[in-house]
Amino acid sequence: MDEPSEKLQNLKSLNSLLLKETKDRQQQVESLVQGKADLEKFDMVKLGMHAKTGGTLVGFPSATLMILYKRIATVRVEMDPAPIVLTLFACLSGNLLTGIMAAILDHKASSWKLSWNITLLAPVYSGVVTLGIVIYVQTVLVRTRGPVFMTAFRPLSTIVAAVL
């Protein structure tokens, strides 16, 4: 009986987080529009200004999207009773997207021919063993320790993948 109330509480928490983030961004934009912020002179002739502008245009929306995505993923992981099901869906969606991109980038039929050698074994091993284990462990970590703990060890998955 507690499960529906927990789901409702998680959705309320997500809603309040989104509202707070939106208000914070609104205040920052208002202060910029009113000219109250102490900003450096905007000079697009300088190469450094190009880098700063590009970094801001890419980084700000990316960071905002990741904050929202991680919070939604955390709520989903906490609500789901079986982390292995989440692992299955994450792997399947990754395979689907990779297959679509591979079909777009390499549309020759001869390059899609499968044979029983290392060219088949390596991607299967990498996808099933490495990605499956990493996603499962991350799902369990989010459930037990929270998203910050899992994100802190994200570089570890890169090292494990390189070693395997």
TrEMBL record:
GO terms for molecular function: transmembrane transporter activity. Keywords: Membrane, Transmembrane, Transmembrane helix. InterPro entries: WAT1-related. It comes from the Eukaryota. Signal peptide: none annotated. One of its GO terms (cellular component) is membrane. The chain crosses the membrane at residues 49-69, 81-104, 116-137. This is WAT1-related protein.
